[in-house]
Every structure is written in structure tokens, then in C-alpha cells.
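Review form for a predicted model. The reviewer records the input and the model, then writes brief findings.
Reviewer: anonymous (R2)
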Amino acid sequence: MPPRKTQANSPDRAVVRAARANSLADPAPIAGVPGPGRWLLAELAPVSLFSLKTSQATSGVGRTLVVPTPYAIKMACVDAAFRVGWPDSDCAELLDTLVGVEVRIRPPGAAVVTHTIVKIRQEPKKPSPEQPYLSSVAYREVVYHAGRWLWAFDLAGGDDLLAGRLVTALPHVRSIGKRGSFVQFLGFQRADDLGEGFTAPIVTGDDFRIGAAWHVQQLDDFGPEATFARLSTFSAERARRDRDRTFTTTIIPLGLVRSGPGFSEYRDRP
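Model under review:
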């Protein structure tokens, strides 16, 4: 891959993004998706229980997020590109161009988290041929969503080539988060603006909207210096916090309405 341009010889990103946003106000289709609108919305239905550990979770206590993170969604797109047979260089370029793209999520209006204790086989601190694994128990959570997700990609953060790659890759996304969290792609649309039903990152100096019910979580995303080599699990390079992988305090538009020993119920209104 060619080296990434440095800030010294690149145009002002804010100016480029604003000009791109203005061009996307035109109703002309982008990658076959009619406009107007800077946001590309992918509609997906969760067809099994969803689970994605929070960044603070341990192997024994696996608390889950209620929604997927921008990092997980971008990785799902790259994974789909690999599985449909794109060349490695195109998959790496897709990851590289997704770095500057903002992603937000609109969950269904209701979600129920099930709290479970499961038996697991765990590798001991000092494994031996006679005892390679130990029996243990672990806390796990899974989420049932009653409805469909919208994943919103800000096309102002990329060009027509990236839009075309997203439109090609997203229909092949089959799961998100923990293995077995399957989804079904349903279609595309575009939008000028996102309402209160979408996740909203809390960024100093930027406005954000708060709906009738909400809670706050740390969601991860690609950092400004992320590269394919650093984010690949098969690479010897390590991702660096705040440079290759960032964590942003984000408003999730679902509030806790009731809970018990075995469940927590979230809804978009009290």
C-alpha cells in the first residue's frame, strides 16, 4: 500500500469534509443509493441474540454492551470483504479509508439483557498434560432486540470509492460482536440528519441530542493512526490506545426501565 499522506501535505480535513457534505445534499445517487443525504443507512435485523463484551469485561464476568460499537461495525465490513474474496490490498484499503468515517447506531426501541451463569473449561495458570483445562463457571450476558438496527456511515468522511465499497460489502455482513450474533441485511437508504434515536458521542465543543431515555457507555472506534497492520489480530504489531483505537463516551438511546436477578430491560422511553 502507498504510505499515508502526512498532515503537512494534506488539505484541511474539516474543509474537505464540509465540501463533501455539501455535494451529498444533491439527490443524485451515490453508489446506486438515491439521495439526498450525507448519511448512508444500512438496515439490518438481528436474527439471534447479540453479545459484545464491554472493554472493562473480564474472562469470568462478561458484561455486554446493548449495541455494537463503531469499531466492531467497521471490522465486520472488512471481514465481509475478505470472505467474499476481495484482494488483500483492497481489504486493507477499506480499513484504511474507514478511519475517518463516523459511524452511529440506531437500536430498536426495546432490548432485554439476560444474565446467565454458564459452565466453562478454563486453562489453568500452570497447565499440564494430565490437567490441560479446569472446570469453572462464568457470568455471561446476551441481548434480545425487538426490531431492527440502522447503522449510519457519514459519507462526508470518504469519497465515492469508499461509498461503493460499503454498498458492496455491507450486504455480506453476517454477524457482529461475539461469534453467533447473526444479522440479516435488509437494505440501504440515505438521510440528511440523524435524530435522537441514534447513538451520540460526547465530544467537547460539539452539540449532541438526548432522547427521553438513555444511558452512557464507552464505545471504541478506529483511532486516527490506525492501520491494517496494527489492527489485524494476525500481525505482530500492537494497536495503541488513543492512537490506533479510541474510546469515546457515548449516549445510548435506551434507558433501563426494570431489572431483576436474571434480566435488565431497556427501552427508548421511560
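Findings: The chain has a mean pLDDT of 91.
Further findings: The helical segments are 13-23, 70-83, 88-98, 160-169, 228-231.
Recommendation: see findings above.
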